[in-house]
Structure formats: structure tokens, C-alpha cells
Amino acid sequence: MAIYLTKESKVLVQGMTGGEGMKHTRRMLAAGTNVVGGVNPRKAGRTVDFDVPQCLTGLGGAPSAIPVFGSVAEGVEVTGADVTVVFVPPAFAKAAVVEAADAGIGLAVVITEGIPVHDSVAFTAYARSRGTRIIGPNCPGLITPGQANAGIIPADITKPGRVGLVSKSGTLTYQLMYELRDTGFSTCVGIGGDPVVGTTHIDCLAAFQDDPDTELIVLIGEIGGDAEERAAAYIRDHVTKPVVGYIAGFTAPEGRTMGHAGAIVSGSSGTAQAKKEALEAVGVRVGNTPTETARLVLAALEGGA
């Protein structure tokens, strides 16, 4: 009951020994994630004891001494890791992703924000050529509740369920998870809102469509670009499961960048209204607020209008 990330995933953390890496590795462990190592060439050979009590979540998370490797390749060779979470400064993100792809990592979750666009273009293309899926950059990661958490999404605001969620916005990912906490999710994927991302709405729609335990899909978009319009066309042609949507930015002023680097509106292109209309035209129910969106999800699950 998941896409991309399961309890079987073996997770490395690039930048684990930094402040953010330490904090979120502890949270991932507390969520039951099988974190098998960190990567830092300057601290190779050490171990970090996160001492995460099992009682925090009841999902695992026994006290964990995590080894630090000098390279991703070494970590993969020793542990069999197939996922990496990247917590490195923007200037080093491209090299970190290339290293992960060269090591044969199947999924790289790039949390780092502020990465130059030309670097994102380069490493997403390179990773694709090596068979590595990128989530992000500038994203909260993804979580399969009750199984594993790769990134910074809070693990304690939802539970396993039958709804799949794909979102540009980290904050709205958390809000919808909380709004539907009694319903639960198969997997929640925060794809990031930068102009260049490795995994798109369409990629996640396809994966959720093929997942037998995802009954309904929630798609969260935002102003700027045409990703949601392209997703609408894909839904029309390929998705048979019900989809509920929400678009952030109805009150955004024209011609101004809002939040994510890609969220800019020019004329009618990229507006929340245009995206809403495109989705509704293919049968997607679109809420005007996150709370209304949650109500639409519940109604759809119950077979209501």
C-alpha cells in the first residue's frame, strides 16, 4: 500500500551529521524508517547514536547507532541502500545527486532549497539517464504512513489509509494530511515547487493509478506554469480513479512571484482559476479551501456527489 517508499526501503542520509540532517534523521527513525547509514567523507567510520525510543511512535525506532560512510557507493555496498535523502547545502547538491546516481541509488529525495536552476536541470537529467528517480528539489520528501518517512514530513499527523497525495506545496501537504488524519493515506509525495523537479504530478498520478491499495488521489497544485493543466490532460486519458484537487494562489497578485520560484502568473496563464477550470473539465473535484478539499475527499470516498 505505497508508491516509491515502503518499510523495505533502505535509506541513506547525505548530510546526516549536519544540524538539519541530524534532526530529521532522528524523526525518520522515530517513524520506523530503515535508515541504514549517513554519508560524510570527513566523518567516515564513525557512528551516530540517535537513541530514538520505540515508544515515540510504536512503529519501531529502537535506539539506533547509524554508521557514517565516506561515499554513497560505500554505503550502498555495505548496506544495500536503495534510497537517499539529501540534506546538503545548495552548492553541493548537484554533486551529491550525481554521486547517488552513480552508486545505483533508485530514489533520491532532495530536500535542499535554493539550488541554482541550471544545477537542477543538470542533475535531474543525469539521474534520469542513470535510472534514479528524483523527488524534489526544494521539497518535503515523501511518507508512507506506518512504513517509512524520507524527508521532513511530520509522521504523527496521519495514519495508513487509501488516499494518495501529490503536492507542490509542503505546507499544504501537511494541512491535507491533518485534515484527513482519520482517513489516512497510502503515500504522500511532496514533489517541490521549483521550476525544475525530478518527479511530476503526472508521474505520481500514474503510480497511484497502478497502486491497488490507493482508492482516491488528491492533487495539490499552485499558481505558475502549466503542470496542473498537463496533469488534467493526463487524468482525462489515463486515470480511472477519482481525483480531488486544490490550487493554491487564488488571491495572488498578477505578475508577482509568490513563494516557490516557479509560482509566477502572467495574464491568464498559470492562474489558479485557469488550473481549477482545466481540472474540473476532466471531472476532478476542486476545493476552494483545504478544508473544503478534505470534505470533497470524504464525500468521494463515501460515494457522494
UniProtKB/TrEMBL annotation:
Main enzyme class: ligase
Reaction(s) catalysed (UniProt annotation): succinate + ATP + CoA = succinyl-CoA + ADP + phosphate; GTP + succinate + CoA = succinyl-CoA + GDP + phosphate
Ranges for domain CoA-binding: 4-115
GO MF term list: succinate-CoA ligase (ADP-forming) activity
InterPro entries linked: Cit_synth/succinyl-CoA_lig_AS (IPR017440), Citrt_syn/SCS-alpha_CS (IPR033847), CoA-bd (IPR003781), CoA_lig_alpha (IPR005810), NAD(P)-bd_dom_sf (IPR036291), SUCC_ACL_C (IPR005811), Succinyl-CoA_synth-like (IPR016102)
Active-site residues per Swiss-Prot or TrEMBL entry: 260 (tele-phosphohistidine intermediate)
Free-text function comment from the UniProt entry: Succinyl-CoA synthetase functions in the citric acid cycle (TCA), coupling the hydrolysis of succinyl-CoA to the synthesis of either ATP or GTP and thus represents the only step of substrate-level phosphorylation in the TCA. The alpha subunit of the enzyme binds the substrates coenzyme A and phosphate, while succinate binding and nucleotide specificity is provided by the beta subunit.
The protein, known as: Succinate--CoA ligase [ADP-forming] subunit alpha
